[in-house]
């Protein structure tokens, strides 16, 4: 009889503990910092009347194919086909999703609405400073109004959001443009037809990132004459008044941004910049970006704009929208650059233990009262010797330790140790919450 025992497999290599490239793990200290920052931003958003919503991580491929930038659709989408043969994407941004939701529920809403979300998004990018494959983003949008007061509201909101996290006005700048003005300037003055307009706008969106020869080549590739190229270069150096002049009175009269800047309508300084165009196809007029002014991190932090036609992908009703998305990667680079990150808060207020069964019951009763009073309390889970309890309390950074079951304690008493002062006092169990509240 032959031995048919299967050969023993060799030891399997251990799995990597690293996250997928371009994504991050957030350990408790870092998560504490993030929670503090985002909690502050939520409070400002809600003070401005924004209410929170959420949506699915998976969306139909067509939703992004229709209106996202070609770079995202062609190069950066995480896409899949489900078991029913449907093409899906892991969302790369939130604006198409919120437009879909507004369209689907417009009859239930009292427009205009102010909505915000905090979601994670995914793009297949080369990880580098300021760009990862997964990022968390706060989106704030207003739907249902074409008024220039929407722009004023968002610019003032950005000012308050930045102030709330410790950013002085000198540390950032809002740069804005209007695609109505830009497109009118290029059709009326430069003489471009509609087919050439989008590629030229995309070239201008990269204007400051490339040299003069590359700029010239990008424009020549799109069939511009030498005279047209000269006018595009002239456009890139114009101020708002000059752009309004070459765009024509009709376009100038339609520009919310011109009303805001020329009328001095918001508290926040907004600088007109003809090169802010943004790559997303759905923007229709106002576009803006917030830049770090530090020479060590001079880059765009976040941006947004007006998209008055996006909801029309889903229904005939026209519901204008305007908003921005604030990504966490660039935001936290900014906070680090300016040294305004809050300190982590992960240490408990109190560590509680008892040295035997009876004293543990006393200690845990105190722990429950302290938790109800709002203290952050860690109670021992293991039966340890006194030195090990104190060592653990020190390692987790507890401010106070409550000990029950010490030989010198009477029934119903506990010892309270102040870890920073190495002082200790004896209290009845019922006295502890009030005593710590006054400490």
Strand content bin: 15-25%
**How would you sum up the major sheet?**
8 strands, mixed
* Model regions low in confidence, pLDDT < 50 over at least 5 residues: none
| Oligomeric state of this protein | single chain
Give the overall shape, derived from the CA principal axes. elongated
Which value, in Å, is the CA radius of gyration?
29 Å
Number of discrete helical segments: 16
* Structural class by helix and strand composition: alpha+beta
| Helical percentage | 25-40%
Task: Give the integer mean of the pLDDT values.
Answer: 92
Terminus-to-terminus distance: 81 Å
Give me the count of strands: 16
Task: List the strand order in the largest sheet.
Answer: 1-5-6-11-10-9-7-8
What would your notes on this structure say?
A hairpin with a 7-residue loop joins strand 9 and strand 10. The chain has 439 residues and is an alpha+beta fold. Strands 1-5-6-11-10-9-7-8 form an eight-stranded mixed beta sheet. A five-stranded mixed beta sheet has the order 13-12-14-15-16, with helices on both faces. The model has no long low-confidence stretch (mean pLDDT 92). The N and C termini lie far apart (81 Å). The longest helix is centred in the first third of the chain and has 20 residues. Helix 1 runs antiparallel to helix 5 and helix 6 packs across helix 10.
